[in-house]
Amino acid sequence: MNKKIQRSLAVVSAAALVFGVSAVTSATAAQKTVYLAFQAPLTGPNALTGQDELTGAKFALSEYNATNPAVKVELVLADDQGLAEIAAVVAPGIASNKKIIGLIGPAFSGATQASLPAYKAGGLALISPSATKVSLTDKKAPVNGFPIFKRVVANDKYQGPALARYAIKGVTAPSVYLVDDKTAYGKGLADYTSPSLKGKIAGTDSVPENTSDYTSVVAKVKASGANVVIYCGYAPDAAKFVKALRDGGYTGIFASGDGTLKATFPNNAGNTAAEGARLTAADVPFEDVATAAQMVAYTKLTGIKVPGTYVTSTYNATNIFLTCIKQGKVSRPGIQGCLSNGTFTGIAGDTIKFDRYGDILGGAAVGAFTIKGGKITYVSVA
Amino acid sequence: MNLQVLSSQFWSLCLQGVALGFIYVLISLGYTMVYGVLRLINFANSEVFMIGTFATVVAQVGILNNQTNSQPLHGFRLVYTLLFALVFSMLVSGILGVLVELVAYRRLRALGTNRLASLISAIAVSIVLLETTRIITFSRPQTSPRLLDKWSFGEIAGANFRIDTVMVIVSGIVIFFILDRFVTKTRLGKAIRAVSMSEENSKLMGINLNRVVSLTFFIGGLTTGAAAFFYTTVYETTQFNVGFNLGLAAFTAAVLGGIGNLRGAFYGGIFLGVLEQFASAILGSQWKSVTVFLVLVLVLLLKPNGIFGEAVQQTRT
Amino acid sequence: MINLRDKGAAIWENWSRTKRIIFVVTAITIVALMPYAGEFGPTSFLNTPISSYQAVLVYPIALFVLMGLGLNIVVGKSGLLDLGYVAFFAIGAYTMAIMGTTTGLNTWEILPFGIFFAMLAGLLLGLPALRLRGDYLAIVTLGFGEIVRIVALNLEVTGGPNGVVGVPNPPPILGQKFELDDHAAYFWVILVMILLVIWMVRRFTVRRPGRAWEAIRQDEDVAALMGVNLLVYKLWSFTIGAAVGGAGGVIYASKTMFIAPDMFTFNTSILVLACVVFGGLGNIWGVILGASILGYLPERIRFISNARQLVFGLVLLIIMNVRPDGLLPRKKREKIKAKAVK
């Protein structure tokens, strides 16, 4: 490369920065607009969860803005890459931006933990669609999210025992192999599942997320003689694991929690491997609760046919904010009061009300699902 | 510690380990070929692998139009589909390997700067490849349809000789054998070895250095692409971040065997595959990587150039 | 190509002592005022969209500069490729987190422990690993970085994947409080640490260890022949680098109040190494510039949201190809031909 090209490159990159600046300043000039922040991993290795959730938030917002409301709402995307260290940088910025009146997210419990101090200081209310860690709403925990933190997803304390009950339901002499994925979510769920299985656990393993080869775990499951396998982790890995189990000749029960209850799970596991899997969740698949017209609009907006993880809960979280904004609450304290005292309706027609520490009142009911003919089917309350 | 698993699953673990090992072998050839010639760790190779897995899915689903829920194929259609996907993935990865060299290495090589600049440049290319794929695929895992019905040849001592396991091992041996012959016997192969022994002297002998380097990256890409095809056929799923773990494992395998040495990569890969299986079966999967690295450190302390490292030492200037 | 580093050095050499002191004091003052640049009119273009400018200044920028300087001792000065530098940062952070939540000691009291444990880890890793050459050292350090993270992930005492919550903030110094949103205070503390490291590195460079490192970097065999004790001086550079990383980790844990294993991935090691190479291997000012830019850039371009990391990768690629020796390369005479490295 010669000097001329080098110089022009420098000019171009400098120009890019300058234009970036003007783009930012002009975007904030609009009138009668309030902002909601959306914090989740949008780039990097954990981006799947955040990008999936984002579709739920965008869809709820597009429905709202289509009704020509008096107050327009826009999203501010705060990418934390799912990492606590980035969240610790993003959160003070969001908290100090007074135009932002509420926050959907963060997606991950770790990032939530790192963000909470800044949001508490800024009095910014947040609703997480997917941070299930128990301590976030535990009044005895040294660091909890009171009073600003709310979540529209059941925490592990409720789901763990329900998962254990449902997994061994109707099995004579159950012998359970419990596997988690070494993430804060998977380990947390496994820790709340195992006490309900006392004396029935044949073995445990922790397989780090994004492992490709599950054959050694399958060998262990077979050697232990377990007839129930419970996996605490996310859908992509659950699909690989259940496929390896079935290909390895395991015929017992496969059970998993809400991280797995996604339409992508039976898809990725192939035609037959996921058949009959027992899944529990407080978050229900979006395509099961959305109307046909909504699904068409959703696909048109996002380009995605099969909604992924936590789309329903993100949609609900966004709508809760929008309900408050419709009631004329366009300040941080207003939103905070509205969330604490209001009663809301979820997309499935369910009533959502938060308790003092931010969990859904009566949100303890966990649904039981199975997979029939490659489709997730609701069975009962677990 | 879980030793009970060994009594019934010992041979099964061995077989699965070898099969996984062959995938490592094929990826690690991508590292070791480049290292042999340029003495550079080709950090972008893991993303070449990642693109290869997507190329396989594209060939099967996009080009040959098999649906994700379609039934397994049989006869000529099956062979044709598998071969087409294999060749497609290899070519895409091979060409990508050449492009990576052009973009990340060529200019820096011409300037003769420090090796770290090339390292960072290759990492930058990895970031670009990874993020581009992530944006295109909406960050979601892509499934490859089960086109190969996974019937078994039978069980020996608890080890299940399934068709895909056998296919990976047999093809791995064939590809490695061809590559080994190519490097030792053909004119081009000799050129590669000459450059790896001495850049200066091979230039004097009239070897076109840039062409040989491109060829090396192409071959490394080919084997990595083959690995990507086998990976996708066995595990039937891929994601934009699939390259990191496998690339790291394959790189470790190359170092274990003695980086820059083809046969070293071969034994290193298989050793690593088996080691991983036993480590996660006995100690628990969470300790797998720790075990691997401790073994690596031990091996390097006893044999500082890897298990088969002598050959590299001889070729060094 | 213009070598700004040499030009700068030439001007510096010609200055009198008073001129130098005035320059240094002004420069430090300007840097110390950086936390307010985001709000100050003429420099407000520095402000980062979405994330907090002051927080970004502490992490990643200032901590990257600190870690970059530490890693520069290892990679730049003595030519040892370390791909697992984040391990020492993690050890410092976990020392702070565990001791801070259990023993009741405060940050300043734990700081020496954090540095000590990081150095100890450097020594224990270095003793076997530094006998290896070039790329074999690279993979062993890479493995060590992963081992530290995975062990933290698997142990009970480190909280496993949940990490450690409720790490205490530092107590006030001279009335300056260190609450969570006192970003500027943390910035100043790290700035002092950076200045100390710069002073230390400059001392070392002109003394025996610096000359030994330089010799090792240029040619190990010749250095050994000349009577340089390779292992001892390599260990020195390795443990000093580790100490700087450990100190950074202590401050970091104390600032974010929460740490978890996924903060200490291979990516961070690579990023810090990229800062060193991008800025100018072996040159303190280059490393500082490189770390500032690479820490700042991803936050500054948040307005492009989805393609942020992609643009980061492209910028890194282009600059590395345009300026392979980094933005501010080391002095020409210190440079060695590529062939000597082989």
Describe the structure.
The complex is a heterotrimer of chains A (382), B (317) and C (342). By secondary structure, chain A is of the alpha/beta class. Helices cover 43% and strands 18% of the residues of chain A. Chain A has helices at residues 3-27, 47-66, 84-96, 109-122, 156-167, 184-193, 215-224, 235-247, 264-269, 286-289, 292-302, 311-326, 332-341; strands at residues 33-40, 72-79, 100-104, 126-128, 149-151, 176-180, 201-206, 228-232, 253-256, 278-281, 344-345, 351-352, 367-372, 375-381. Chain A has a seven-stranded mixed sheet, sandwiched between helices. Chain A is globular, with a radius of gyration of 22 Å. The model of chain A is unreliable at 15-30 (pLDDT under 50). Helix content of chain B is 75%, strand content 4%. Chain B contains twelve helices and four strands. Chain B has helices spanning 4-38, 45-63, 75-111, 115-136, 163-185, 187-197, 199-204, 209-235, 242-257, 262-282, 288-302, 310-315; strands at residues 142-143, 152-156, 159-162, 237-238. In chain B, the strands form two sheets. In chain B, strands 1-4 form a two-stranded antiparallel sheet. Chain B has a two-stranded antiparallel ribbon with strand order 2-3. Chain B is globular and about 55 Å long. Chain C is mostly helical and 342 residues long. Chain C contains 14 helices and two strands. Chain C has helices at 4-14, 17-32, 53-77, 86-102, 107-129, 134-154, 183-206, 208-218, 220-225, 230-256, 266-279, 284-300, 308-322, 338-341, and strands spanning 164-165, 258-259. A two-stranded antiparallel ribbon of chain C has the order 1-2. In chain C, helix 4 packs across helix 10, helix 5 packs antiparallel against helix 10 (230-256) and helix 8 (208-218) crosses helix 10. The model of chain C is unreliable at 334-342 (pLDDT under 50). The interface between A and C is large, with 51 and 47 residues.
